[in-house]
């Protein structure tokens, strides 16, 4: 844990807690967060001291067994969740699957899962797979994000959406949609991939039923860091655990032949937790424990406004697709541009790392823990050079790589 | 990678490649393998150089995206699998779930999943969960391990068993059972938790359909290390991916709204791979690439024979539950003893680390990469002290901990 729990000022104190390579302006923390300096030592300690010396005993002596729940409680703070309502593990794909399976079970007489075309594809794919496994005639209905509210009806079993759109940065109104959904008997599943660590979330206050998120984006826990699942306490003892692994059993070490779900959020554990990845997550949370998410949000909006103003002034051919209204925006700024893929390659070659999302979206993530005004201003200058200076048209930037 | 690919002699060369704490005889590598010395540096490099400096670019530049398949090919060598047939990721619970879901889909007219009471409980629990989700009247039928062969019939859809029993160390005959299963139209799913890195497995030669295993036991990849899934090449392009995440999509970075399964084993990927854990796994495989699994097996059997002979001679009250016949034994030796829990606590207090499995099984894992004759002889002396000397009766060893 951190030596002191005194508060850290966002950027002024936190920038020095991250490693960022020279010559890079990193605007892709919404895809993979930057490296907190405390991670390497923490992971090394778990490898050498806990695994190396304690060996199997570390499940007790180092607290590995209870860690997924304890870490869940640290994440709960960031997303307005009740203590004991968040479990860490697996990947976001699996956590939305668990949530949707439980939600559909709670509303078995209805057959429609409502989502939107701005949801991240893996959520839709996992739902397709679940629906096929269920084989009970469920339908995944997709509407445009702005049509979600009007599409809520008593036909819908589950509202299954991502709060902040991964391409546009458009933000849904969680409290309003959840209230309307509940009035119509709809269970809600929220994906917080672009919310957790990006902006204040109020799961308990909004009455959300289920939520899931990842920790490798704004939380900065590293590539492939574990995901988390939230189950509202009123559902936790009854929600069906579709992925009923031994760690979610009421008595995992009794090795009984029949499954009996543990009480509460424990039932949403599946297999053996990823201890090394959990160490990196703990080190990243050492920073989050000491910052005010409201301050992060205020800085994010100001930096986003600055980036929008500077890019629009310098590059009129870039069309803003992120809502201008603060309450409808996440923590990224996205522009549509026909040459977006090539332009992003040119930017990355110049040290401005954002990313591209098909068909034509250039994304810039705003992560105030390690990005400030000077970085945003410098990025805007380089964007101007690439776009207005037509650097993006050079042949070397037209080659499409396999993965971005 | 290792500096040289020259062969290593088992124990004589490999013992020095592991960290083992002073005063410990570690006979629990069948639960959590010991720490290979190369892990800490490898993981540190991935954290500082790849994540820290390359950031999001490392998905391409450091090969993170392709790693689960490349590492799968390294594991394939150990289990007699074809190149391109093994995918790494998630946990064993999830991998047996994927395998069983695909297997049931291939044999949809039959409704019985056959397993045995020696299967590891999470396999049974995951099957229960899948059967409930399917809701198509499937039945999980459990028989005693020795009754499996006789229980095969044309009523069975899937034979779903663990090759080596986690409690007794009893080994099923994979080739024989698979052949008989196939003759009856049964699809096979093998759990290799106590096989991979423990003994030669011949998936291709035995004609197995699906298999899954973990890497934190005999492979020594660390606590919560990722699992793997094998799909026979003849099924890989048609097996249904029930956990249909974006990484298993034919074009993951096209971000299409509808799921289209990738060809081959790639469809069994789910979400973002655990990159830090994968680094530890790669370091552990640097040793496995250079040893001969047949030599590991020969040493394991000899050490097991020695432990059995010494314990039976010194402690007649311990009843061997592991088969004596080499071909029917995995790489552990287990004894039933009414005071087993207390005795194991007393042994651990004296540096002999094995483990206990309810109701009365004392397990000792044989891991010849870092356990040799002198360790086995010393362990036998301490077992004698604890059992024959009645040390296990002391009150301090009767207290049951939450997790063992």
Automatic annotation (TrEMBL), chains A, B:
Gene Ontology biological process terms in this record: anthranilate metabolic process; L-kynurenine catabolic process; L-tryptophan catabolic process to kynurenine; NAD+ biosynthetic process; quinolinate biosynthetic process
Cofactor(s) essential for the protein: pyridoxal 5'-phosphate
N6-(pyridoxal phosphate)lysine, modified sites: 217
EC nos: 3.7.1.3
Pathway(s) annotated for this protein in UniProt: Cofactor biosynthesis; NAD(+) biosynthesis; quinolinate from L-kynurenine: step 2/3; Amino-acid degradation; L-kynurenine degradation; L-alanine and anthranilate from L-kynurenine: step 1/1
Swiss-Prot/TrEMBL keywords: Hydrolase, Pyridine nucleotide biosynthesis, Pyridoxal phosphate
Pfam families for this protein: KYNU_C (PF22580)
Binding residues annotated for pyridoxal 5'-phosphate, in chain numbering: 92-93, 120-123, 162, 191, 194, 216, 246, 272
Catalytic activity: 3-hydroxy-L-kynurenine + H2O = 3-hydroxyanthranilate + L-alanine + H(+); L-kynurenine + H2O = anthranilate + L-alanine + H(+)
Domain of life: Bacteria
Entry's Gene Ontology cellular component terms: cytoplasm
MF terms in GO: kynureninase activity; pyridoxal phosphate binding
SUPFAM superfamilies (alphabetical): PLP-dependent transferases (SSF53383)
Function: Catalyzes the cleavage of L-kynurenine (L-Kyn) and L-3-hydroxykynurenine (L-3OHKyn) into anthranilic acid (AA) and 3-hydroxyanthranilic acid (3-OHAA), respectively.
Homology family: Belongs to the kynureninase family.
Complexes and interactors: Homodimer.
HAMAP family, per database record: Kynureninase
PANTHER family in the record: KYNURENINASE
NCBIfam families hit by this protein: kynureninase
Protein name: Kynureninase
Protein's organism: Bradyrhizobium niftali
Lineage per the UniProt record: Bacteria, Pseudomonadati, Pseudomonadota, Alphaproteobacteria, Hyphomicrobiales
């Amino acid at each position: 844990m951190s030596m002191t729990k005194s508060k850290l000022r966002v950027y002024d104190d936190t920038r020095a807690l991250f490693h960022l390579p020279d010559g890079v302006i990193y605007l892709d923390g919404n895809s993979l967060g930057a490296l907190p300096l405390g991670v390497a030592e923490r992971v090394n300690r778990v490898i050498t001291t806990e695994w190396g010396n304690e060996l199997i005993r570390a499940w007790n002596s180092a607290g590995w067994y209870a860690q997924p729940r304890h870490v869940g409680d640290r994440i709960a703070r960031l997303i307005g969740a009740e203590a004991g309502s968040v479990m860490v593990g697996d990947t976001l794909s699996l956590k939305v699957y668990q949530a949707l399976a439980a939600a559909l079970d709670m509303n078995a007489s209805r057959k429609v899962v409502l989502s939107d075309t701005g949801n991240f594809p893996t959520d839709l794919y996992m739902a397709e797979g679940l629906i096929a496994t269920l084989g009970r005639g469920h339908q995944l209905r997709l509407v445009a994000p702005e049509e979600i509210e009007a599409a809520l009806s008593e036909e819908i079993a589950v509202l299954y959406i991502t709060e902040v759109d991964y391409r546009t940065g458009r933000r849904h109104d969680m409290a309003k949609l959840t209230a309307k959904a509940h009035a119509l008997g709809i269970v809600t599943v929220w994906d917080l991939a672009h919310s957790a660590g990006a902006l204040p979330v109020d799961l308990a206050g909004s009455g959300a039923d289920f939520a899931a998120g990842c920790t490798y984006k704004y939380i900065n826990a590293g590539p492939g860091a574990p995901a988390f699942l939230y189950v509202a306490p009123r559902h936790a003892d009854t929600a069906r655990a579709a992925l009923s692994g031994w760690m979610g059993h009421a008595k995992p070490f009794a090795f009984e032949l029949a499954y009996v779900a543990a009480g509460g959020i424990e039932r949403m554990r599946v297999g053996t937790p990823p201890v090394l990845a959990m160490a990196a997550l703990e080190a990243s949370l050492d920073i989050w424990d000491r910052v005010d998410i409201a301050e992060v949000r205020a800085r994010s909006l100001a930096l986003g406004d600055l980036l929008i103003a500077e890019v629009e002034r310098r590059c009129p051919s870039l069309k803003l697709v992120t809502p201008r209204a603060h309450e409808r925006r996440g923590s990224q700024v996205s522009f549509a541009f026909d040459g977006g893929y090539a332009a992003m390659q040119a930017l990355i070659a110049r040290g401005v790392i954002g990313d591209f999302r098909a068909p034509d979206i250039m994304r810039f993530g705003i992560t105030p823990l390690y990005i400030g005004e000077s970085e945003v201003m410098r990025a805007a200058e380089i964007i101007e050079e690439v776009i207005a200076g037509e650097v993006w048209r050079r042949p070397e930037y037209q080659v499409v790589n396999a993965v971005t």
